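Lines hold sequence, tokenised fold; shown next:
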Amino acid sequence: MTRLVAGNWKMNGSLAANRELLGGLVSIPGVEIAVCVPYPYLAQAQQRPEGVALGAQDVSEYAVGAYTGEVSAAMLAEFGCRYAIVGHSERRALFGEEDATVGRKALAALQAGLVPIVCVGETLAERDEARAVEVIGRQLEAVREVLGAAAMGAVVLAYEPVWAIGTGRSASVAQVAEVHAAIRAWLKVHGVAAGGVRILYGGSVKADNAAALFAVEDVDGGLIGGASLVAADFLAICRAAAGGV
């Protein structure tokens, strides 16, 4: 399958900085590229280079109504979004999103024709307790309970070891391989068409470690944070993903 590299800008950017960043991006044969921008910049990001997909960093579980501050999947679709990140570790940790909420957000995205990028991953304490696979299985099961096994085959998953996000640390290739293989196995056991589900790695991917990470059998791309804010760095990661296809 074609790898996906999605840039998560998080709460960064300005009209001027975005213009420069978007102007520095290009499509690259052999890899799908997406940028997930803050809501206020969705309109500006419609002027991105051809071949670069647009995504949002979150989506409401609600379709319409009195939900001040929320943004619906239909609204995102109107702006040309293809993807919506759901369940990012920062949403879980800082804003109290529960596993079931993530499942409902994924469903809302799918119902509006968006592809949810469902994030899963363990904290440092959970890894030290050798509970990484258990925790991720719980997170995946909450999504499957809402979507069902058939619909879950249409999502993108992103494994993000929480302890490796924004810290400059990255899980070892062996650790990444172990968890991605476990995720693929979980999908198969639970009736999901695992072969068609892209599993991204999202823990401090940089230009200098991207090739090694993308060489792992079950790594189907990356969810890129800080490195996606510099066009040259982001494109270097995208080229590494394309070279491994």
In short: The first strand starts at residue 3 and ends at 8. Strands lie at 3-8, 31-37, 52-56, 83-86, 115-120, 156-159, 199-201, 221-224.
